């Protein structure tokens, strides 16, 4: 009975893409660990850009800094 | 000082029902483990239906599949 | 299909107490929100004392500070 | 930069199986959402059987109850 | 490659304050554990007041109860 | 009443370093958001190297791949 939580930045993932993630992760757990899909939960969290940090910066500022340094 | 996180699908839980969950979980931790309610946190996350998967499907599609297979 | 995560400090909770937490939380979700127990997951994490902080201190140091200040 | 957390019961998943989960989830995020693998984290938590509940029971008791009721 | 999740009640934290949290936590992990900021993620969750409980009450009711008891 | 969860790979962080993380994060929340330290929780999870993936690989294999490609 696995529980999987996927956190991604909110950048327009569609319901169809989310359904693909749910199916893909569940199939993976069935294939690798023989888990029962009926008791495999997948929860997706979309996180606003201003709420996700990397490199000490909110993600948009971080991406800008990468571009300007290259 | 327990921390409890409750994730449910977003299907109209009312503030009164959430307050009942908060009270119920806190009372349980006091009763079973003698925890101090003043340092017991309960955080409720309501998850959009399209963001919750089970059986390899988003939850609404999963419920539909159960009905049609019965 | 709720998912509940309970984090407590590791201070000797017994399997019987954990079973009581699992049953209590599940019953609560059935009673308040009419959830299906068969798809209600409860995961308990016991956290080592040195890994839990409150008041800016690891929990044991925090408890000592409360006693000495009273 | 996704973050994925996979929780499974501790039942002997091998390092090779864990590596397969890590690869599979990362590939999925690359394929479906065009994410950068270098900033895709996957964290696996193995949860002791007594710490995972379903159907209001610790998971072993739950499995036993399913068998005896069938 | 640390992952940090900060949960706070939704009470008007500004993007600038969030950026300060992201920077502060990342700097801390660099300083204390020599972590690489480029692989340090910080995710902030703002939780609605009705979804956060303490002392067995939603947080607003709890604050009111503290005032009236003092 | 913030709740902060810090996940790091298990690579020998000492109790003193953990205490420094707890103090640093708590001070940050007090300074930036005027939070009350007495209701600020910090939970540190050390994750085994084989349970943390990045770049589609367990972290040790990933580090090795970076070295050999440079």
From TrEMBL, chains A, B, C, D, E, F:
<dbReference type="Pfam" id="PF01361">
    <property type="entry name" value="Tautomerase"/>
</dbReference>
<feature type="active site" description="Proton acceptor; via imino nitrogen">
    <location>
        <position position="2"/>
    </location>
</feature>
<dbReference type="InterPro" id="IPR014347">
    <property type="entry name" value="Tautomerase/MIF_sf"/>
</dbReference>
<comment type="similarity">
    <text>Belongs to the 4-oxalocrotonate tautomerase family.</text>
</comment>
<dbReference type="InterPro" id="IPR018191">
    <property type="entry name" value="4-OT"/>
</dbReference>
<dbReference type="InterPro" id="IPR004370">
    <property type="entry name" value="4-OT-like_dom"/>
</dbReference>
<protein>
    <recommendedName>
        <fullName>Tautomerase</fullName>
        <ecNumber>5.3.2.-</ecNumber>
    </recommendedName>
</protein>
<feature type="domain" description="4-oxalocrotonate tautomerase-like">
    <location>
        <begin position="2"/>
        <end position="61"/>
    </location>
</feature>
<keyword id="KW-0413">Isomerase</keyword>
<dbReference type="GO" id="GO:0016853">
    <property type="term" value="F:isomerase activity"/>
</dbReference>
């Amino acid at each position: 009975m696995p529980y999987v939580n996927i956190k991604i930045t909110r950048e327009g993932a569609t319901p169809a893409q989310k359904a693909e993630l749910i199916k893909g992760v569940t199939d993976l757990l069935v294939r690798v660990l023989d888990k029962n899909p009926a008791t495999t939960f997948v929860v997706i969290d979309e996180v606003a850009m201003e709420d996700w940090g990397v490199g000490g910066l909110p993600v948009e500022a971080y991406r800008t800094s990468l571009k300007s340094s290259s």
